[in-house]
UniProtKB/TrEMBL annotation:
SUPFAM superfamilies: S-adenosyl-L-methionine-dependent methyltransferases. Keywords: Methyltransferase, Transferase. It comes from the Bacteria. The gene is trmK. One of its GO terms (molecular function) is tRNA (adenine(22)-N1)-methyltransferase activity. Coiled coil: none annotated. Pfam families: Methyltransf_18 (PF12847). This is tRNA (Adenine(22)-N(1))-methyltransferase TrmK. One of its GO terms (biological process) is methylation. Its EC number is 2.1.1.217. Transmembrane segments: none annotated. It is an enzyme of class 2 (transferase).
Length: 229
């Protein structure tokens, strides 16, 4: 199975033959890839909805994966017991939902060797939650896939260093010095899109939103200048 750029960014962060839970597995592509490439000893493919689980089962069959993957139906990490797997993956949901999945099963979340997170949006909400809730980001990477930038983070329990500015919850700190094309692209596109939004915000009466956005644009531009992005 060939994975999309963003899903490949997730599996690339698995650095040993681990037991893995893929939470919100949907199509089951990650479990299939992990087993086909012998990157995991076992995978639990879990989803809150029956439809996706049925699709994952069908896709697993089509790829002749008969051993090593177990499907489970239920919310978040509730389908797992403490210490059952080494690694969890939670991807393709919003940053708010990922944060609440971690918070709802905090004991289980803190037992993983590490967790790989890839929010579909609101990565800043997730980074704030992680910082405030005793998780630290070990590594992070931005990739561009199908017209969108995705932030992938490998996290574990621990205390992270304080974030200097609001902008860093959006950009993360791990890529500031790598100056990868996708990271640069994210910074420049975000500045452009915020400059469009602020025009409408200025016309409305939402003063605090306007101030938040204009400060954020300023901070993004400082990051762009400081790191030559
Ligand atoms: C957009 S898909 C993402 C699939 C895959 N993880 C990816 O990144 O391509 C989101 C999946 O998460 C599932 N989901 C949503 N909320 C969930 C929750 N609280 N617990 C487990 N799965 C959830 C949905 O049913 C859906 O299959």
């Amino acid at each position: 199975m060939n994975l999309s750029i963003r899903l490949k960014a997730i599996v690339d962060l698995i650095d040993e033959k681990a037991s893995v839970a893929d939470i919100g597995t949907d199509h089951g592509y990650i479990p299939i890839y992990l087993m086909e490439n012998k990157l995991a000893s076992k995978v639990i493919a879990s989803d809150i909805n029956k439809g996706p689980i049925d699709i994952a089962i069908k896709n697993l069959k089509e790829h002749n994966i008969t051993l090593g993957v177990e499907t489970r139906l239920g919310p978040g990490l509730k389908t797992l017991s403490k210490g059952e797997v080494d690694v969890a993956i939670i991807a393709g949901m919003g940053g708010n939902l990922i944060a609440s999945i971690l918070e709802d099963s905090i004991d289980i979340a803190k037992e993983f060797n590490y967790i790989i997170l890839q929010p579909a949006q609101h990565q800043e909400v997730l980074r704030k939650y992680l910082y405030e809730s005793g998780f630290k980001i070990i590594t992070e990477k931005v990739v561009f896939d199908s017209d969108k930038y995705y932030h992938t983070m490998k996290v574990t329990k621990g205390n992270d260093t304080q974030y200097e500015n609001e902008v860093h919850y959006y950009t993360g700190r791990g890529e500031l010095n790598t100056r990868s094309n996708d990271f640069k692209g994210y910074i420049n596109e975000k500045i452009k899109s915020m400059e469009k939004i602020i025009k409408y915000t200025a016309k409305s009466e939402d003063k605090s939103r306007y101030e938040y956005l204009s400060n954020l644009i300023k901070e993004f531009k400082e990051v762009k200048r400081e790191y030559d992005l």
